[in-house]
Structure formats: C-alpha cells, structure tokens
Write a structure and sequence with these properties.
Structural class: alpha/beta
Helix content: 40-55%
Number of strands: 29
Distance between the termini: 178 Å
Largest sheet: 5 strands, parallel
Bound molecules: adenosine-5'-diphosphate
Length: 882
C-alpha cells in the first residue's frame, strides 16, 4: 500500500495522475492537494511515501516548497512541470527533488519506473538517517571523552587546519597565547611559537607516516614545564588524511625522574671515582653486580672479571661460614664495624673492615659493600702489641733486675761501710784514720745515691707499694730533726720544729716513706742555707672541705730563681748544673719526693725568693684509721689467744719450724707441723686448722702445688712464707690462691699482722725490745725475735749448729761430686737462717749458689765460712747462759 501526496491546484491534473496510478496497478491511498497549512503539518506528510508536486501551485512553486521542506531528506519529491527546461531541472534537483517530469509525458510505464526507484530511494534515505543518528551518538561520545580527558587532543588535516580539538588542548594553548584556533582554522599560525617550534616539525614527519612521541621542555617566561606529545597519522585508505596530537603534562614525572637521574649520576661518580673499594652484591644469588676500580685492585682482578663472580669466591674459603654469621649480626646492629678478609686472585688474604648498606639497584635488592683495607692498621696494632709486650717484659726485667740489684748492691755497701767502721776502731795512723773517714763518708754518700736511683726506678716501674700504718707523727718528725741536728749545728743554723696543737699526733701513712720525704727536704734546706734557720712546721689545713696534714719546711737559704721553680721536681734537675758547682747532689731527691707524695695522693708546692729562702709545703690526706688499730698489742695477743686458733705450719726447715712454733706458742695458738706438702694436705683435712703457714719450697710437694690441692676443697686462709721478697714471687703466690705473704726470717709482728688480718684483729708491728744483756751475743736479729727468752735463743743456736753441721758435710760431698742441684738445695735451706743470725756474707754467697751464679771459689769460700760460723756460734752458745 502506497500513500501519495499530490500538491497541485489543478483538479484535472489530479484526476489524470490518479488514473495513471491506478492503471499502473497501485492500490493507493492518494491525498490530493492540500493547502499550505496542511503542507506544514509534519504529521500528515510523515505518513506519505512519495510526494508529487506541481511546478506551480496556488501562488507558489515547487522550488520554494523543496527549499522549505524539512522532510525532503526523508520523503522523495517528484516535481511535475507543464514545460521542462534544463536550467529549471538543474535548479529543481539542486533543491533536493527526487525526479523532475513533464506532466504531459506521464505514462503508466514511466509511473511504474518512478515509483520503483522512489521506493528504493526512501529505503536508502532511512538507512542513511539511521546511520547519521549512530554517527551523531558516536560523535557525542567521542566529544565527551575528548572533553573529559586530562590530555590535550586535537587533529589537523593535511593543511594544518583544525579538524577537532578538545577543551584541555584549547585551555592549555590559550594559557600560553591569547587565542586558540577553532575547527577549520590554521593551527600553527594561531599558537604560541614555543609550541609550533616543536609541533610543526613533528606534524611534517607524521605526514609521511611516522608515529612519534617526543618529551620536551617548554619555557614561557619564568615558567617551565614538560610535555609528552604523541603524533600519529590518520589514514583514509592508504593516504594520510590528517594528523592526531595527544599532549600530556609530564612535568612532575620529569622532575622526579631528573632527580633520580641526578642521584644516579652522583652515585655513579662516587661509586666509580671513590678510592674506597666498593662493590654491589645481588642479595638473591650473591653475585657481584658491579664494583669500582679500587675494589678490583684490592682483589687483584680486572673489574670486568669480577662482574658476575660469586662474592664467596672473594672470601677466604675457611672464613665464608663465619663471615655469613657476622654479616647477619652486623645487619641486626649487634656488631660494628664488621671485620673480614679479602681473598685475592693470587690467593692472598687481606684483612678488611666492611660496612654494608642494603639498597635497590636497577630493581634488584643489593648489598652495597664498602671495604677498607686495614692491613696497615693490623700491622701497626701487631707491632704496638709486640712493643707493649716487649716494654712490659723490659719493665718486668727492669724491676727484677732492680730488686736483685738493690740486694746485690746494698749488701756489699753495708759490708764496706760496716767494716770500715770496724777498721776505724783498730790502731791506725792519723793519715790512715783520715783516709778511712773519707772512705766511710764516700760510702755513705754512694749508698744514698744508689738508694735514690733504685727508688726512682721502682716508682717509675710502678713497683713501689706504700705500706701505710698507724704511727706517732711527733716521734717520726722528731727522729728526722734529730738526724739532722748535728749537720745544722756544724753550719750554725738553727733547726726548729713547730708542732701545732691542732696537728694530729698519730697518722696512718707509710712512715718510712714520709721520713724519706722529710729527710730529703730538711737535708736540702740545711745544704742550701748558710746562716739563719730551717723550720719544720706541722699543722692541718682545710682544702676543698677536707682536713689535710700540712708539713712546711722553710729555710733562710740561697733560694731558687723563679724560672727554675716549675722544673725543680723533674729528674736530675739542679739549679746550678755546672761541673764546678758548689753543692753536691744528684738532682733526684725532689723528683723522688714529689712522686712519693703523689703516690700518697698528696701534693707538694714550692715558693722561693733568691737570697731570702725557700718554702716547701706538703699537703697529705691521712689514710683512714681503722678502729681496730687502736687495740693495744697486749689486747691483740689476748684476742688471738682467746680465739683458740689452730695453725698448721707446712715447713721442712727445722730452724724455721722452731721459730714459727716459738711465736705461735707465745701467742697461745694451737699448732701442728707438716714437713712437706703432702703431709700438710692430709693435716688440713685431719687437723682442720683456721690458718696455714705455707713454705714454698718443700720436698715431695711444694707450697704452690699443695695450695692448689687445698683450694679444691677449702677456702682456709693460707699465708706463704718465703725468703724471696720479690713482688713477682708474691704475685705468683696470689695466683696460686694464697692469701698473704710473710718474708723469712719471720718476725713475730708479721705473724700477728697476718693472723689478725684473717680474724679481723689488726695491729701494728711490734717493736723489738732492746736488752743490754744480749749485746755480747751480737746477734740482733735473734735478740729481736727471742725478746729476752734466752732458752729459746739457745734452742735456735743449737738447731743451727746441728743443721748447719749436717748440711756443711753434705755440701762438701756435693762440691766434690760437682752436684749442683744438691748445692742449690742446701743453700736454699740455710738462707733464712743466715739472715736470722746476721750472717750477711754467707747469705750473699748462698743466694749466688741458689741462682747458679757462684764461681767455684765462691762455693769453696761458702764451705769455709760456714764452718767458721758454726765454730763462732758454738763459741757464742757456750758463753751465752740461759
Ligand atoms: P740534689 O741532690 O741536687 O739536692 P734535689 O732534687 O734534692 O737534688 O734538688 C734539686 C735542686 O733544687 C738542687 O740541686 C737545688 O738547686 C735546688 N734546691 C732544692 N732544695 C732547695 C732549697 N731548700 N734551697 C735552694 N735550692 C734548693
């Protein structure tokens, strides 16, 4: 069913067309001419399949209608004309007519033909319409996308005119130029040259088919930014139809990347240029990712050889496991620095100190390892250690040497001085007497110098130990004054002592050393004073809240120049150091004085004026006095007696046993004697003593070994007894677990000291009593010990005679048999007895024999002298009545 509309003002024409249509076989619903109003009713026209329109109708014509007809695209319009002309036909077709026919030439076949093609045209028109609708929606979507993206997007045709451009692009372009080209306008002419300079070349390249991406920096005045521009050709078939641009602002990304690039550049320059060997190790497989030249050199490889190597091939094989453990500890922060070793290509081992940082390098977790070659340092440390050990050894040797020297030198000096004094008592000519005086005085002087040198060396070696004890300050200072009274008198100088009433009468200090200090200063004061006086002032002085003992030695002597005062306490320093100087001396005295005072935690200062005199001030802290020290000796003895102590004496020498038992008996102490270490050990178990006195050299088991055995089951106090007074010896005793040390021959006071110490009863050494009755015996050591007990003294003499006779016989045999060991044994056994009985000569030779330093002559002399001494003692014993 076809619906037609015929726009005509002629009824005849209408009838003619209607007839023709029917003849052509169209069952048609035919609307004839409608007036203008109806024609503008779209709904009416919409229903129509084909419109016939007369060239002229009412006062109108088909061209106007066509130009007005908004539906022309949808409904085909056939224009019927009375007269047809070519120019009218062109106009009519141009206005959108589907066909243009002469009304007079209409025929059925023509009508059929027109209607067929009109139907076809209508279908096509509708198809096109749908297509356009779809295109429209696609366009709208695209537009929406384009306008909502953050990238600037635009397309240009081949001539550079805008085909499409989104708002982002427009805004950005406008931001850097006043205008933005619209669709159809030439793009590059309108935009800021900062863009066209970059984009136009891209556009031309793309025109020949290239796809390009370019990141560039744009600077507009002070403002800089980065754009990434992608440029692609748009094809129409095989030909390039236009170019699409997509521009994105990548300023942030570029700045971040440039920072990374910069830090990478810095890293590389540090890495490659550093003198410190550095390598990068991949954590996943321990392969070496990279290293610098210094690192390759350290390992003895070429750099390229090491890349890819396993790091464990650069560590000494024996050390790999340890190095892994250490690395873990280091990363946990438990050790720092990390010491390791490098294993070089030549299999050399170099000590290194390592620091490790964990980083990500080229997306790979790596260890950044810094290696510091410390072989030089290790070598220096080794040398220092060796030097220190050597120094310690030399100091040890020095102290040993000095301790020996002190004995070796002092003993013959004493003998020389002593015998010179004896010689003086014999009949001498005046000249001889004078010479003897000179020898005696020189000997005294030499002894002082030797003592100074030995003291100083001992202080410097740190071997000088103070032995503080409580004593009467007044008495000690009084003795010093007494000693120098004569000297002062000879020079007509007054030597005065001012003891302040506030000054302590008793102090706890090393009395021997304090006397040494005072003797030195007083003798200097007298030495350097020609007239006037020397005053010793004792007082107390409060300094920093502490009450200190103050001792001042003031003289009216020559004084000391100001510039010398600072160095006066240095070794060997003398104000007048010329060879022809007026005053004798070594320049050691003040140095020893100041060091001794320092040892006592005190200080010394000096002020002086040339020609007027000098003033030395000493400030000393008094060591704390232990209350128990006030206990009188009588009480101490009583306390020891009432404590009902049991003492075990481990000693093989009968004289020593006798001595010890005498002292212990006097003290009211129960004792038991063991003659060797083995029986001593058994006695500790069976007798259960409170204290053990332990000889060191004994048969079967010596004192050291016995102590070690006792220490396995008991903490009982063990006191060593030895003739060796070296500090090394005492240290050895301590190391073997002994608690105290008593030098042989022992004195009662020392035994009381030691016993008191372990039973919290302390006291001072007892002073030997003088008994005129003993002088004929001329054995002061024994007299001191016996304290008037003649029976005891006799028993000691008997014991000596018995033992010495036996040992002398054995020594003779050993001498003939050249049995050195036996000689050593005998010498050692008799040594303490020689000291006790004041047999200095024998003591010296016995020591030499013991230390294997004796010549054959010495040994022969020893036997001779021993035999003489036995005879002498026998004589003394017979004249000494109980
Ligand atoms: P010396 O054995 O030479 O006396 P010291 O160390 O005791 O050594 O003294 C060093 C020097 O200090 C002396 O040589 C002397 O020049 C100077 N001196 C020490 N005490 C006095 C003093 N009381 N008066 C003047 N000078 C002194």
């Amino acid at each position: 069913m076809f619906t037609f509309l015929y726009i005509t003002s002629s009824k005849d024409s209408f009838i003619q067309l209607d007839t023709l249509l029917k003849q052509a076989g169209f069952e048609c619903n035919f609307n004839h001419f409608k007036n203008d109003k109806e024609l503008s009713n779209k709904d009416v026209i919409k229903e129509v399949d084909l419109i016939f329109c007369d060239q002229h109708f009412n006062d109108q014509n088909a061209l106007d209608f066509l130009n007005r007809n908004e539906l022309g695209d949808e409904i085909p319009v056939v224009v019927l004309a009375e007269d047809t002309t070519v120019s009218l036909a062109r106009k009519t077709f141009k206005a959108g007519a589907f066909d243009y026919l002469n009304i007079h030439e209409l025929s059925v076949p023509l009508i059929k033909e027109v209607l067929k093609s009109a139907r076809h045209a209508k279908t096509e028109m509708q198809l096109r319409k749908n297509l356009e609708k779809r295109l429209d929606s696609i366009y709208a979507n695209t537009r929406a996308i384009l306008d909502n993206t953050t990238d600037g997007i635009w397309s240009l045709d081949k001539d550079g005119k805008v085909l499409i451009i989104n708002s982002v692009a427009k805004d950005n372009i406008k931001e850097h130029g006043d205008t933005c080209p619209n669709v159809g306008e030439s793009f590059f002419d309108a935009i800021n040259p900062i863009f066209s300079n970059v984009w136009e070349p891209l556009f031309h390249k793309s025109l020949v088919g290239e796809h390009l991406v370019s990141v560039d920096k744009y600077t507009d005045g002070d403002y800089s930014f980065f754009l990434e521009v992608a440029c692609s050709p748009i094809y129409s078939g095989k030909d390039v139809f236009g170019i699409t641009f997509i521009a994105r602002n990548v300023t942030e990304r570029e700045l971040a990347e440039s920072k990374i690039r910069e830090s990478e550049k810095n890293f590389r320059s540090v890495f490659t240029g550093s003198d410190v060997p550095i390598m990068l190790e991949a954590q996943s497989d321990n392969s070496i990712v990279d290293l610098n030249k210094a690192c390759a050199q350290l390992h003895g490889y070429e750099r390229i050889e090491m890349i890819g190597m396993n790091i464990f091939d650069t560590i000494p094989p024996d050390y790999i496991e340890q190095s892994q453990k250490n690395l873990q500890l280091y990363l946990k922060g438990e050790i720092d620095p990390l010491d390791s070793f490098v294993y070089t290509k030549n299999k050399e081992i170099i000590p290194v100190e390592i620091s490790v940082a964990q980083i990500v390098y080229n997306d790979t977790p790596c260890n950044l390892i810094f290696l510091y070659d410390i072989s030089q340092r290790k070598e220096t440390e080794k040398k220092l250690k060796e030097a220190r050990e050597l120094a310690e050894k030399s100091a040890e040797f020095k102290s040993l040497f000095l301790a020996n020297m002190s004995h070796e030198i002092r003993t013959p000096m004493n003998a020389m001085i002593g015998f010179t004094d004896l010689l003086k008592k014999t009949n001498l000519s005046e000249e001889q007497d004078e010479y003897i005086d000179i020898i005696s005085n020189s000997g005294q002087d030499l002894l002082v110098i030797i003592n100074d040198i030995l003291d100083l060396s001992k202080i410097e070696a740190g071997k000088l130990k103070l032995r503080p004890r409580k004593f009467s300050l007044a008495e000690a200072v009084g003795r010093v004054i007494q000693l120098h009274k004569n000297n002062a008198k000879q020079k007509s100088i007054e030597l005065l002592l001012q003891f302040d009433s506030e000054a302590p009468t008793e102090v706890c200090l090393d009395d021997t050393r304090l006397s040494q200090i005072l003797n030195n200063l007083v003798s200097n004061a007298i030495k350097f004073t020609q007239e006037g006086q020397v005053i010793v002032k004792i007082n107390t002085k409060e300094t920093d809240g502490n009450e200190l003992l103050q001792i001042i030695i003031e003289d009216s002597g020559i004084g000391i120049p100001q510039e010398e005062l600072e160095s006066i306490f240095e070794n060997f320093n003398q104000v007048d150091s010329s060879l022809q100087r007026k005053y004798a001396g070594t320049g050691l005295g003040l140095s020893i004085v100041s060091q001794l005072i320092e040892l006592m935690d005190g200080r010394i200062s000096v002020s002086s004026e040339v020609g007027k005199g000098s003033r030395f001030e000493i400030l000393l802290p008094e060591a704390e006095v232990i209350e128990a020290e006030h206990v009188s000796e009588v009480n101490r003895r009583k306390e020891i007696a009432s404590a009902e102590l049991k003492v075990l004496i481990c000693e093989d020498n009968p004289v020593n046993v006798k001595l010890a038992t005498k002292i212990l008996l006097d003290l009211g102490v129960h004792y038991r004697v063991a003659n060797n270490g083995k029986t001593g050990l058994e006695a500790v178990k069976s007798f259960d003593p409170d204290i053990v006195l332990m000889d060191l050299q004994m048969p079967v088991m010596d004192g050291y070994e016995t102590t070690l055995e006792i220490r396995k089951f008991s903490e009982i106090p063990i006191i060593a007894m030895s003739a060796h007074v070296l500090e090394e010896e005492q240290k050895k005793c301590e190391e073997h677990g002994m608690n105290g040390f008593i030098p042989k021959p022992f004195k009662e006071g020392e035994i009381i000291d030691q016993i008191s110490k372990y039973f919290k009863i302390s006291g001072q050494k007892s002073k030997p009593e003088k008994d005129a009755g003993w002088t004929e015996l001329n054995l002061p050591g024994l007299a001191n010990l016996a304290k008037g007990d003649r029976v005891f003294a006799l028993s000691i003499l008997d014991l000596f005679i018995e033992t010495a006779k036996k040992e002398a016989k054995l020594f003779k045999t050993a001498l003939n048999a050249k049995n050195l060991d036996e000689q050593v044994r005998i010498a050692h056994k008799l040594l303490p007895t020689f000291l006790l009985l004041d047999m200095a000569q024998l003591h010296i030779i016995a020591q030499k024999i013991e230390e294997d330093k004796a010549t054959n002559e010495d040994r022969l002399f020893f036997l001779k002298r021993l035999t003489q001494q036995i005879e002498e003692i026998q004589k003394k014993r017979s004249s000494f009545k109980p």
